[in-house]
Write a structure and sequence with these properties.
The chain is mainly alpha-helical and 386 residues long. It has one domain: Di-copper center containing domain from catechol oxidase (di-copper center containing domain from catechol oxidase). Helix content is 34%, strand content 6%. The chain has a 3-stranded parallel β-sheet. α6 crosses α11. Pfam families: Tyrosinase. Keywords: Metal-binding, Oxidoreductase, Signal. It comes from Dichotomopilus funicola.
Length: 386
């Protein structure tokens, strides 16, 4: 990879007007969309536009401290191993939530926080930005509690499904030393995680590799007391059928190309049928990425954050938003919707000054503070194209 200094110079030359005008978005053929040519080019434009804004900054987020996020397969083996070990370290650190029977570790903290916030941060104004900051908070914990200073990853699902590959052989889930562990034991005749899809290729406890000894302490959401101590193995049911239907490179690219505003963009990403554009994408990439992993807790809407792959999946959702924003920065610093899921119960329209809840893991921030990944208050990162 080129040095950051060279990239910054290139960014200035190619995107000197990025602060004032929208990027000229190329036209792509369907084959270019389906094979990843389009998303790579859109990612490059967004990356260079964001770096040009970093170069213009003299405080907060600068070229000296901006972090580069990478697709898992583009990370060094040392960083892959370091990231995995840091997550395992969090599973040994004490919890910050108090008074919750099942929350025993710092990793459980993330499951509890997601459980509490789920009714407010899905199909709402804060879906994209709450999860953006959630991943950033994890990045800080991995560094401050467990000493990890390497790259924070994302997983481009489309490289591992359809004609591009399989989830089972993905470097994220192939069960190797440098993965996040493999599939669960195959359970004959098990049901798929969702209707309308074939069952996955696992279903049981992880057999070997990283996280095969991991204990899920809380959940599932349908239990009498979801936060009661309920230790069990982590299960996975990697699902190529779901990935091929809802998490391909086409599924990743078309929301970026077709969304006219933030309301439409987040509707397409989540399959929110309140918008016509969200009615034609099935479970969409948000559900598609989650259910390509499946299992327990991966299929649990409330507790899926206890699945180590959750954060790479949401890293790619954030990367899609990052690209979409940086293709027309001046016009894409907006939100749409209220602070409750599907506006139930009805609540006022969200505004940028609203606080998002992250206690006790991190101080609360406003929606507006998370709008810019290179804003420096506190975010300071960009996504490298894969």
């Amino acid at each position: 990879m080129k040095s950051l200094a060279v990239l910054l110079t290139s960014a200035l030359a190619l995107a000197s007007s990025a602060l004032a005008a929208a990027a000229e978005i190329p036209q792509f053929t369907q084959e270019e969309i389906d094979t990843g040519v389009a998303i790579r080019e859109l990612g490059r434009i967004a990356y260079e536009n964001a770096l040009a804004r970093v170069e213009a900054s003299t405080e907060g987020c600068t070229k000296e401290n901006v972090r580069i996020r990478k697709e898992w397969r583009n990370m060094t083996l040392d960083d892959r191993k370091g990231y995995q070990e840091a997550v395992q370290c969090l599973m040994q650190q004490p919890a910050r939530h108090t008074g919750l029977d099942g929350v025993r570790t710092a990793w459980d903290d993330y499951g509890a926080l997601h459980y509490y916030q789920t009714p407010y941060v899905h199909n709402s104004a804060t879906f994209l930005l709450w999860h953006r900051h959630y991943n950033w908070v994890l990045e800080q914990d991995l560094k401050e509690l467990c000493g990890y200073t390497g790259v924070f990853p994302y997983w481009e699902w489309g490289l591992d499904c359809g004609t591009m590959g399989t989830v089972d052989t993905s470097p994220v889930f192939d069960g190797s030393e440098y993965s996040l562990g493999g599939n669960g034991e195959f359970i004959e005749g098990h049901r798929p995680s969702i209707g309308g899809a074939k069952a996955g290729s696992g279903g049981g406890c992880l057999l070997s590799g990283p996280f095969s000894n991991f204990t899920v302490n809380i959940g599932p959401v349908g239990s009498a007391d979801p936060l009661k101590y309920n230790p069990r193995c982590i299960k996975r049911d990697l699902n190529n059928d779901i990935c091929s239907k809802w998490a391909t490179l086409r599924n990743t690219t078309e929301p970026i190309l077709n969304a006219t505003d933030i309301a439409v963009f987040q509707a397409i990403v989540q399959g929110d049928g309140r918008w016509p554009e969200g009615r034609t994408v099935g479970m969409a990439v948000h559900g598609g990425g989650h259910f390509s992993i499946s299992g327990d807790p991966g299929s649990d809407f409330y507790f899926s954050a206890l699945e180590p792959g959750f954060y790479l999946h949401h890293g790619n959702i954030d990367r899609m938003h990052f690209i979409w924003q940086n293709l027309d920065w001046e016009n894409r610093q907006t939100i749409a919707g209220t602070n409750t899921m599907y506006d139930q119960p009805p609540t006022p329209e969200a505004v940028l000054e609203d606080n998002m809840g992250f206690e006790p893991l991190n101080r609360n921030v406003t929606i507006g503070q998370t709008m810019d990944t290179v804003g420096g208050t506190p975010l300071c990162y960009v996504y490298e194209p894969w």
